[in-house]
Amino acid sequence: MPAGREEVGVGEHPVIALHGWFGSGRAWRPLQPHLDGTRFRYVFPDYRGYGGRVGEPGAHTLEEAAGDVLALADELGFDRFSLVGHSMGGAVMQRVLADAPDRVRAMVGVSPVPAGGVPFDEQGWALFSGAAADAGNRRAIIDFTTGNRLTGVWLDAMVRHSLDSSDPRAFGDYLSAWAKADFQAEIDGRELPVKVIVGEHDPALGESTMRETFQRSYPGCELDVLRNAGHYAIDETPVALATSIETFLAKAE
C-alpha cells in the first residue's frame, strides 16, 4: 500500500473517506471491519501534513486538499466516486464537489463542517487555536465535543493519535481552513444524494446545525442522529455508523 492512504474492499462503487482535524487515514480503522468490501472499495487518504504525509510541503488549504483527492481519484482510475467526510473532512468533500461536481456520485458527512465554516467566540477560538501546541487543549476539545461523558483512557489515546499523526504547522493551518471556510454559494442547491450523520451528544456539529446548513444547501439531504455518540461516531458507534453510511450509499448506485 502506498504511503499516505489505506484501502478496504474490492467492490465496484469507489468511496473516498476524508478524515477530521484530529485524525488521519488510520482514524477510520474502528469502522473498517464493519464495511462491505464486496460492494464498495474504500480509500482512506491522509492530507498533507498528516499520517504518512507528515513533513510533506503544502499550503494546508481546503482547495489543496480537494485537489489532492481528485489527483488520487485519477491515480486510482475513479471517474466518479462517492465521498465520506468526518468533521473537517466534511468541508473538504464539499470543496471537491464545488471543484468537480460531475465526478461526485454521493456524499455522506459524519459530523461534517459546513461550507460556511464554524463560528467561534473569543474563548472558543483561544481553545482551538492553542491546540496545535497544547495537548491539554486537544483533550479538552475531544471531551467537550463528545459530551464530557467518555473514559479518559480513550481521550488520551485520541490525543496521542493526533499528536503522532499530524505536523503542528499543518494542524494549525487546517484550523483556519475549515473554521473560516466560505464557499457556501458554490454548493447551494446542488442536486445529488447527500446524507449527514451526527451524534446526539455533539454540542456544535449536531442535529440543529445540520438543519441550518446542509439541509438548507442540498435538496433532499437526509439526516441521521446516532444515539450514544458524540462527534466521534467512528470510535463511539462504529457498527451503527457503517450501517447508516452503506444503507445510504447503496441507494446511490
From TrEMBL:
<feature type="domain" description="AB hydrolase-1">
    <location>
        <begin position="14"/>
        <end position="236"/>
    </location>
</feature>
<dbReference type="GO" id="GO:0016787">
    <property type="term" value="F:hydrolase activity"/>
</dbReference>
<protein>
    <submittedName>
        <fullName>Alpha/beta hydrolase</fullName>
    </submittedName>
</protein>
<dbReference type="InterPro" id="IPR050266">
    <property type="entry name" value="AB_hydrolase_sf"/>
</dbReference>
<dbReference type="Pfam" id="PF00561">
    <property type="entry name" value="Abhydrolase_1"/>
</dbReference>
<dbReference type="GO" id="GO:0016020">
    <property type="term" value="C:membrane"/>
</dbReference>
<dbReference type="InterPro" id="IPR000073">
    <property type="entry name" value="AB_hydrolase_1"/>
</dbReference>
<keyword id="KW-0378">Hydrolase</keyword>
<dbReference type="InterPro" id="IPR029058">
    <property type="entry name" value="AB_hydrolase_fold"/>
</dbReference>
